[in-house]
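Give me C-alpha cells for this 643-residue protein.
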Amino acid sequence: MGLLPGAFRSGIIALAAGLLVAPTQAGPLQKGDRIVFVGDSITEDGTAETGFQTLLKEWLKVKHSGLGVQIINAGVSGDKVTDLQKRFDRDVLAQKPTAVVICIGINDVWRGKEGTPKDRYEAGLRDLVGRVRKAGGRVVLCTPSAIGERKNGVNEFDKTLDEYAAVCRGVATDTKVTLCDLRRVFVEHLKAHNKNDEAENVLTKDGVHLNEAGNRLVAEHLAQLFEVDISALAPKAEPGSAKLKDQPAGPRWFFRDGDRLYWNGSSHSQDEGWQCSLVEFYLRTRFPQWKISSGRGGPTEASATAYAPIIDKLKPTVVFCEFGYYGGDDQVDGVVKAAEKLAALCQENKVRLVMMPSAFRAAHIDRLPADYQGLKPEQIAALNARKQQDGTLAKLGQEIPVEIHEKFWRMRGAPGCDKRVVAMQAWGGKAGVFVPKSYQDQRDWLFKVWEKDPKFPWGGGHPPIAGYVAVGYFLLDRMDAPVVENRLVLDVGGDRPAVKQADQCAATDLEKSEAGLRFKRLDKVLPVVPPLPIERLPRDPCPVLKYSPYFLTVTGLAKGNYEIIVEGAVLGRATHEELSAGVNLNEVYLRSEAKAAPKVPWMRLWLHCRDKNLDKDKDTPLAAAESVSQTAWGWELRRVNTK
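Here you go.
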C-alpha cells in the first residue's frame, strides 16, 4: 500500500505545481531505503539550503521519519553520461542503493561537439539502468530540464534538448523504469508562468541551474513519484520572512584554505581592482582561519603565452582573467580561441580559471552635452563628423555614444564588448569554464540605479568605485558564496546586563551606565561591508546586505537615540526601538551618510586587501588587535541629545 492518503493520491498536486501531466509512480518508499541521486551540477546543488534533495529530506523527516530513508548525493558538476558510466560503480553502486535517480543530459547537449551524440547518450542510459537493475535497485530516469527559459522553443538548445528528452523517454519505456519527465514539466510550467518571456530567473538562476522555485518544483514532482505525503506541509514562506541562517556554499563555490588568487586584466583589475579587493576581504572575514594571498596585474589579453610565465613565477591556484573590454566586433572569435588555450594551460597546471567579464561600459543621456541630447543615432553620427572636421570633438573629453539601449545611451565599443561577453559565456558553458554573468548584473543594476538617480555618475570607460565594488558583490553572488549570520542579543533591563544569544560571536565585560552600554564582542566571522565612504558603496539592488548579516539586538535601553561605536569609531545611530527589534550594523552604517570611512578596527585588514601582495615573499602580518576572531573589540551604545 502507498503512503499517500487515497484522497490526496487521486487529487495529486500536478495542477498546483503547474504540471499538466501526472507522473508514473516509482512506488512507495520502503523502510531503510537508500536513494542515490546521480547527475551533473543540478544534482550536485540538490543538497544546498533550498535544494530539491534538502526539501525531500525535510518532508521525509516531517511525515515519514519512521522509515529511516537515506538520501545520498552523487552529483558532479560538468558531468555527461559518459562521465557517470566511468564513476558509477565507485560513486553509486558502492553506496548499496535501493533506488537510483539518474538526472543527466544537460552537458551532453550544451557542450555541442564536446557533448555526447544521441546514440551514445542512449547507450549510456541503457547501460546505467542495466547496472542498477543487476544490483537489485529501482530506477528513476529524469529527462534533461532546460537550457534557457524562454517560451515557444526559441532558446538555442531547445530543439536538441527535446530530442535528447525523447531518447530518455524511449529508454524509460523500453526498460520499464520510472520516468521523471522534467523537460515536459519545465516547458509546461514556463508556458504558464513565464509571463515576460525571461531567459532566466523563473525556475533557474542562469537558464540552467535551479533557483528556489525550480528546486521546489523538482522536489514536488519527485515526491509524487515516491508517494511522499506533502499535503499537510506548510506553504513556502514569503521572501524575507525568515531570518537569514547559515547558507552553505553552492556548486560554483571553489575557494579553499591556502588559495593564491591572481587577478589579471586591464586597468579595471590591474589598477582599480576594487572588485578583487572585495572578494579577498570577504574571504578573510568569512574564513579568518584561512591562509589566503591575492594579487593583481597584467597583461591585459587572455593569452596563454603571456600567462605561462606568470603561473610559473607566482604559482596561483586561482586565476581571474578579465576579458571583453578591448577589440571591436571582429574580435569575438579571437577572444574565445585565446580562452581555449588559456583554459588548457590552467588545466595542465591545476589552476582553477574564471573568465571574468570586464566592467560595463555606458553613459546616460543626461550626462551628454546639450547639443547631443534628443538626437537619433544618424544625427549623432552627423554631428560627430562636423565636430571632427572643425576640431572640437576631442574637447568633449569622452567618446560620443552612437547606440540606444532601452532609454540609456551606450558608449562606443560597448556593443562589441557585449558580443564578446555573450560568446565567452556560451563557450564557458560548453567547456566547463566558469564565466560569471557579472557584466549583465552590473548593467542591470546600473539601469535600476539610474531610474532613481539619473545623475548617478558613470565615466566613459571607468565606472565610479561603487561600480567596481558592485562587481565584487555580483561575483560572490554568481559564485554561490556561503553566508553566515553573526548575531548578538543583549538585555540591559534587569539589575545586571546579560547575553541572551550569541551566534558566531561572544560578548563579555557588559557594563550598563546612564549614558548607555559598554561591552566587548569577539567575532568568529565578520560579515561587514568594506570601510569605505558611503558614496563608494553600491546602493540597492546590489546584494550588499545579503553578504553582510552583522546583527545587534539590545533590549531594556532607556528611550532615546544611540550612537553605535566600535573602538572609538562611530558607525551610525539607532533608536532604542530599533535596537530592541535588532539592527544590522552594516545597514546602520549605510544610512549614516558618512563623508569619510570610520576608523574601525578592521580598516587595516581592508587596506591589506587593497595591496597587490601576491608577488611578495610573505604577506604583511596583521596585529592581533586588527585580526578577526583573535581580539575582542570594545563596543559602546551612547545616548545622544538630538535637539
